Amino acid sequence: MTVRAAVAGASGYAGGEVLRLLLGHPEVEIGALTGHSNAGQRLGALQPQLAPLADRVLQPTTTEALAGHDVVFLALPHGQSAAVAEELGPEVLVVDCGADFRLSDATDWEAFYGSAHAGTWPYGLPELPGGRAALQGTRRIAVPGCYPTAVSLALFPAYADRLAEPEAVIVAATGTSGAGKALKPHLLGSEVMGSMSPYGVGGGHRHTPEMIQNLSAVAGERVSVSFTPTLAPMSRGILATCSAKAKPGVDAAAVRAAYEKALADEPFLRLLPEGQWPSTAAVYGSNTAQIQVTLDAAAGRIIAISAVDNLTKGTAGGAVQSMNIALGLPEETGLPKVGVAP
Amino acid sequence: MTVRAAVAGASGYAGGEVLRLLLGHPEVEIGALTGHSNAGQRLGALQPQLAPLADRVLQPTTTEALAGHDVVFLALPHGQSAAVAEELGPEVLVVDCGADFRLSDATDWEAFYGSAHAGTWPYGLPELPGGRAALQGTRRIAVPGCYPTAVSLALFPAYADRLAEPEAVIVAATGTSGAGKALKPHLLGSEVMGSMSPYGVGGGHRHTPEMIQNLSAVAGERVSVSFTPTLAPMSRGILATCSAKAKPGVDAAAVRAAYEKALADEPFLRLLPEGQWPSTAAVYGSNTAQIQVTLDAAAGRIIAISAVDNLTKGTAGGAVQSMNIALGLPEETGLPKVGVAP
Amino acid sequence: MTVRAAVAGASGYAGGEVLRLLLGHPEVEIGALTGHSNAGQRLGALQPQLAPLADRVLQPTTTEALAGHDVVFLALPHGQSAAVAEELGPEVLVVDCGADFRLSDATDWEAFYGSAHAGTWPYGLPELPGGRAALQGTRRIAVPGCYPTAVSLALFPAYADRLAEPEAVIVAATGTSGAGKALKPHLLGSEVMGSMSPYGVGGGHRHTPEMIQNLSAVAGERVSVSFTPTLAPMSRGILATCSAKAKPGVDAAAVRAAYEKALADEPFLRLLPEGQWPSTAAVYGSNTAQIQVTLDAAAGRIIAISAVDNLTKGTAGGAVQSMNIALGLPEETGLPKVGVAP
Amino acid sequence: MTVRAAVAGASGYAGGEVLRLLLGHPEVEIGALTGHSNAGQRLGALQPQLAPLADRVLQPTTTEALAGHDVVFLALPHGQSAAVAEELGPEVLVVDCGADFRLSDATDWEAFYGSAHAGTWPYGLPELPGGRAALQGTRRIAVPGCYPTAVSLALFPAYADRLAEPEAVIVAATGTSGAGKALKPHLLGSEVMGSMSPYGVGGGHRHTPEMIQNLSAVAGERVSVSFTPTLAPMSRGILATCSAKAKPGVDAAAVRAAYEKALADEPFLRLLPEGQWPSTAAVYGSNTAQIQVTLDAAAGRIIAISAVDNLTKGTAGGAVQSMNIALGLPEETGLPKVGVAP
């Protein structure tokens, strides 16, 4: 099978990572590459790491440019995907790396994104219960947010086995690429190197309702989430430290058993041996999520920690993995499991 | 007044930072500098940033070398301070940057440090309730751990005003200097750059009982602490994200008022204007702690975040500040409030 | 003596560093702070490290705002200083951190800056031969560029003693703050972390003629300069690797002797012991320049390397040092010699 | 063809990178993994990024362990390869990532490495003139040093076309992984983050004679090299800034033409469009070398700059590329051309 794929938003970090992975995907042929303000430029000037595509020129993001592909990846600012997707036929697989179709609750959408709800597409996190079934054969995929990916993967085994109280406390550190290629002062190298800082504190981050949606579905009850994201001095990676009170009677063996059961057959989830903890370096550039869990008996809390590459498993890798499932390809096709370290 | 000060352990990060501050302290004259494996070496080869002391040679850490000083700073590995301190007369001010005399509970000490409890000295965190009174005129000071400094400063206003439930959840990121100049593989630059990773997860970090001790004293009830430290790709700085459920009826105004009241007159604590959050870069090399707090109404939690320089306010700055109080000097003498940024 | 100082361009990196130093200067009182697009904002939102000035509000950069000060520091984009300086009386000490008055050759200025030459002011690098005399009593100071500072300090002893051929080859690495707070994609943290890259290669960098001017004056003959600047993944610091062929008959002892003689009495220049090499970390936040030199006998070249903090000795520290000389204050007043490390 | 490969020294940075590449090589089956002090440990504890090999256990480096493989990669400390290689039959392809067999001049070897010369093997830099022919069918390969790779690739077109005078001046920045996983204080994260520093200045670096050997062979005359390596705050990457005086009459067009001709058909060398310069980020984790060149007319020098990943093209990628040639496999097999960026 050869799949012809277009990428809308090819000049950004998410689009660039989609292209890096597609260049290594044996069943994909890369078609149109589009951009907005960068249309007309050579890709080599914008994404110098993509050597084999250096001489490709970005087209404007139009229906014409995106026509004639089997798959279209949308790596656009929030709110722009719906209009583009509407113009693409129902037989085209549209993979939206943006937020537009992630939330099922229109009220949540409007409260956090401030615009009308565009709808809900099958959610591209195959590892969640029922996740693969929802993606098989679909022609529309909502790629999860990077933080919800890291957090949901860390906590779903605990909630699936009803081990944790429905109040999760999450502090996550992200590399700066999570904020995109936006020209904002606080994202300048001079500002971020040597510095840790929080943002979106107190419940305001847009990924919060997505985490609540995922964890509540797994838990079978509403899970509240206190989420504090922090910006770390690195380009890539998310380390999510997630905890919740253990339900009465839960012991360390039950926690370990739940994680071993949930993660045993997952090709991209790696439960580390006891005593070893995740690091973002170990998953750099890979589609692997490292996960570890323990029970803090004195504090009565389950502590689950995950490390993912925000651009790979957290965005483009999850997108390609979901595309593989939707198209009936082997799920692991074209996806690196090995990190680039040190 | 001219105070003659010696530093034992002058080749390490804590000792170097004590010396950096003492070089700018108008009332201090720097006397003996001692080391262990580095005795006999020029300080300039070990601490090249301390230009004015470059030609000083480290002596072995002996009673003779440390005799004849008004103040002796101990920047030694845990467990070595008691023996040295015993040899120094009661009229000498001994400032211990190690852990040996921080904990009042011998059982806690033995459980976390695995040796016999050496005793308890006045605790060098002046900003805690009663903190200054305990230090005035003392000749023995236990400098707090860097994490307990950051965490206690972030949370004491909430506990002092009985706003928070006694179960704190803390995730903190530290620069690598917090681990000292130890030659361990995971501290190599190749390993830490581009990586976030946790350690001591699940209640095992030695700073946990110190946090419990501080917060419980302020709260008037036992506070449990779930503490997860993480290693960040930066040399200095701690960002402590601390949260606890708000007690029933507590609203945002009460939280703000408690912090404004508690921090208003503190020379080194800076409650940021609402909406601005701390960053470790802003306090780099300074004795200032930036603090911010909010109430996450949806999750029902108070989120308090502090940023300190682990070597300055978190160690050497706190030590000098406490020394100033003990000696009756103005508390701010010789201590930078301005960070080196960007 | 109390000197009242204003800073025009207080929201940028140079202006912020001037303020950091002035806050520690015992003879200076900080007056007006001005900005352009940031006028009306609190300084605390723009320079959070300057805690004692957090509540000061930026005024627009006008003659009125800057009037009534003894010293005015200009930290403005190139080309804007002349107009502002003209409005300030000849009795006011104007310290220009920009490039406008550095070059004595109008042709060079026009070729490299593309505008009319504004003139030439006394040059603020006191360590060069005749440097201090030119600054005593002046009311106009052109602060050198950061690279020319590092390069001139590394090479002037070799040229002063006629040890080196007049063809210098220089490769320098700078921290990103050298590019200012400009919102350009290549300065984003995601781009610079983990990356080294050159720019302005082949003779085009604007600091090239300034280096030629300085070295030629010292050498007594025209010195050509091949200069390659590179951007390093750090916020601050310049490491300048400078070399030139040794003149016939020059040996290692002559080289060492020249540097020892030239640097012996300089308060801010530190010739390291043989075998120890500079690092930018060692001078972080300080006005010290570390310098080392050797003779590569096989290649026949003198290799001189300097490390400075581009914002301190390379800009604001050099500015304050020159101000001290101009005003008749002790040259070292208010200037840190100790770096913040690790 | 399935090639069975062993890696001696699998716990170090070079060995880990060889394994990362072999995991993606379609013709290789990974056999024995050996170590010295780490023998007996799980690879997952030492190289957590190599998820598919996590449960493999390191054997001691013995003849028995390495027997029965088609290819043996040696990633051992300098001086240890000869003894191991002797035990392996002449039919086994031995790829030495160490220095032992790189230099053809025994005097150079003894002067720079201080031990007896072990011999000279075919040199694994296929892009040099005659490079591929020397590797076809060989069963012994000396993998070049990382710096000589970067420098030789940057300068060989200029010397091949006799454009440059035989005196090269090179300043290169390397990521810390170039120093290996050695537990030395100056390689600690706290020391390297935020710092640039030189080492091996003045002709002493062991890679100097290797550069001279390569460039002299291309130039047809002895080329002297002034080489200054610097340590940069990043894990990976080399940026080599190389220059030499242009021979009389050489103009910019001739320089450009020489590089276009030399690099046109090279699969892993990428001459950038004029005006675009290399960055180490763009080649992170890839076997690509980015190269750019210009003529500084004022200084009369050719400036050639290359960026490589020191562990990939600079070590393990070059090793696998040379293995492919030796075994008659397509040269590009299993080697990434795309960098992981940002």
TrEMBL record, chains A, B, C, D:
An MF annotation (GO) of this entry: NAD binding
By sequence similarity, the record places it as follows: Belongs to the NAGSA dehydrogenase family. Type 1 subfamily.
Protein name (record): N-acetyl-gamma-glutamyl-phosphate reductase
Q: What GO terms describe the biological role, i.e. biological process, of this protein? A: L-arginine biosynthetic process
UniProt gene name: argC
The chemistry this enzyme catalyses reads: N-acetyl-L-glutamate 5-semialdehyde + phosphate + NADP(+) = N-acetyl-L-glutamyl 5-phosphate + NADPH + H(+)
State what this protein does: Catalyzes the NADPH-dependent reduction of N-acetyl-5-glutamyl phosphate to yield N-acetyl-L-glutamate 5-semialdehyde.
Any one cellular-component term (Gene Ontology): cytoplasm
Among the Pfam families in the record, one is Semialdhyde_dh
Q: Which UniProt keywords apply?
A: Amino-acid biosynthesis, Arginine biosynthesis, Cytoplasm, NADP, Oxidoreductase
Q: Which PANTHER family match?
A: N-ACETYL-GAMMA-GLUTAMYL-PHOSPHATE REDUCTASE, CHLOROPLASTIC-RELATED, N-ACETYL-GAMMA-GLUTAMYL-PHOSPHATE REDUCTASE, CHLOROPLASTIC-RELATED-RELATED
Where the record annotates domain Semialdehyde dehydrogenase NAD-binding, the positions are 4-136
Catalytic site positions? 146
Q: Which HAMAP family match?
A: ArgC_type1
Q: What metabolic or biological pathway is this protein involved in? A: Amino-acid biosynthesis; L-arginine biosynthesis; N(2)-acetyl-L-ornithine from L-glutamate: step 3/4
Where does the protein end up? Cytoplasm
